Amino acid sequence: MPTTDKPKILVVNDDAASLLALTSLLDQWAVETGYTVLAARSGQEALRQVLLHDFAVIILDVNMPGMDGFETAEAIHQRARSADIPIIFVTAFLADEIDRLKAYQRGAADFLFTPVIPQILHAKVSVFVALANKNEQLRRQTEKLSQRTLELTATNERLMSEIEERQAAERKSHAKDEFLAMLGHELRNPLSAISSAAALIDMPGAHAEMGSRARQIIQRQTQHLSRIVDDLLDLSRAMSGKILLARKPVDMASLVGACLDTFRATGRTGGYRINVDLAPNWVDGDPTRLEQIATNLIDNALKYTPTGGTIDITIGAEADEVLLSVRDSGVGIASDLLPHVFDVFVQGSISLDRAQGGLGIGLSLVRRLVELHGGSVSATSGGAGEGSAFTIRLPRAEAPQAAAAPQAVLPAASAAGVPNKPAVLLIEDNEDGREMMATMLDVYGYPVLQSADGLDGVALATAHLPNVALVDIGLPGIDGYEVARRLRANPATGAMRLIALTGYGLAEDQRRVLEAGFDMHLVKPVDIAQLLGALGEPSPLPASAG
Q: What are phi and psi of 412, to 5 degrees?
């Protein structure tokens, strides 16, 4: 055991000879018993030593001038750290019972009478030194146990954290598996309808009405597929922070009213009691994204409310916020699902019939879009069968000043009055898509040149000089951006009208398209009305088509 770890014995005596005699006796057994001896000539010096060291035992003379042994013992035991140090009193006379009581009241552990018998001194000291060694061993073991306990606690917390992370990952993986299954279901339904309708058109016995109905189905299901893809892309963009808001003053009452008109026009609100209270309130936001928010909330209420149910839609203000609330009397939200209702891919219990349908991303997209506008969204429900309510809070904005009515601008095509249709070059590597678009353009009288490759498309444009080029961005050879740059750099084709066709619809994608030299950016799928409008013609379809 190191010297610094040995138990210490303090001998206190004002008589130099007695002090020397006692310390000399104790030094004889110091190595054998394993302790260190310190000395003090007064009670005050003893107190200073106690402040500096811990002692296994103190051998204290009773009769000292100034502060006697009893007073010194009382002062030592008043200090918390030294309160338990055993004290052996040394006295030159046989203490009577009163003195013994007084000594024990001051914390005495034992008595020694002078002349001190060495064997007795050795025996008494050895007991307290052994006790001090045992206490030190227990203290060290306690420290080790405490350290081990801390290590085990930390290990247990780490294991619990890893278990929770693994369980969360498993839940997330399970949710993604369910989502992929739902996505497959949601994609196959319209694809099946489109495939059946296309087959019906080619059937020998199909009459004109059946063919018309089949075409309507194809158009409607194609739009449905487009909405699914748009939802997926919008969610991905919102989660990665790539949605750029085109902010402007928006009256939420007018916007939500327009959304409701769309639902009514499509027959979605039939069979429901729709209560509306839309007070005019303005926000600074992106009208397209705000319409997505309102549409998703209303669609969610319709989807999960049985026919005959009630849906309340209100817009109001509270302090500096505009509140949009959609409350329904539908199936409600279970208490365990409520905290996760805005998480990605969460849709409640999944059943084989998939009566409600959907991908379970609408509410997550709502939350992301609302947060991009600096707002918040919350959901409440009394539980299963108790209906649910969703509340959107957006920063309130001042209503804009009334602007002068814009002058009407006639479409370029109506001003031209040219009977001949402009020649169109279609550069698209997807064979079916290229053939369908070329066929539609041909039906409307447009001469069409076709190319499936970027380099070949540039060569055709240079050789034939068409009026318009419809260019896909993702092309073999060189991409659509490079096609546009080369056509603009060539004096012969520099003035050609260039329209980009792409599946990417972000503001950043549109910026890249325009920087490359395109005049217009169309996002696939492009319907015939949109395409003809880009070519300068009014829509050939009635407003209610589709």
A: -60, -35
Q: Are 89 and 112 spatial neighbours (Cβ–Cβ below 8 Å)?
A: yes
Average pLDDT estimate for 22-31: 89
- Determine the residue type at 362: G
Low-confidence winner among 182-191, 293-302, 349-358, 470-479 (lowest mean pLDDT): 349-358
**Over the chain, what is the mean pLDDT?**
82
Above 70 in pLDDT, residue 53? yes
- pLDDT score at 424: 94
Separation in Å, CA 250 to CA 261, 314, 317, 482: 17, 16, 14, 38
The neighbour count for residue 214, using CB atoms within 10 Å, is 21
Pairing of strands 282-285, 388-397: antiparallel
Is residue 516 classed exposed, middle or buried when 0-12, 13-18 and 19+ CB atoms within 10 A define those classes? buried
As given in the structure block, the two tokens for residue 23 are 């310390």
Q: Name 107's Cβ contacts closer than 8 Å, sequence gap at least 6.
A: 73, 74, 76, 77, 83, 87
pTM over 0.70: no
Tell me which amino acid residue 20 is: L
CA distance 5 to 247: 75
Angle at the Cα of 238 (from 237 to 243), degrees rounded to 5?
70
Q: How many angstroms separate the CA atoms of 504 and 513, rounded? A: 10
DSSP secondary structure code for residue 110 in this structure: E
pLDDT value, residue 257? 92
Degrees, nearest 5: CA angle 337-341-343: 115
Distance between CA atoms of 15 and 20, rounded to whole angstroms? 9
| Tokens representing residue 499 in the block | 């329209």
DSSP class of residue 527? Answer: P
* Residue 508 φ/ψ, nearest 5 degrees: -65, -40
Q: Which of 390, 182, 396 is nearest to 298 (CA)?
A: 390
Instruction: Give the tens place of pLDDT for each residue, 359-400.
Output: 557 788 888 899 999 999 999 998 888 999 999 999 999 988
CB 9 within 8 A of CB 56: yes
For residue 272 the two structure tokens come to 């429901």
Q: How far apart are CA 422 and CA 418, in angstroms?
A: 9
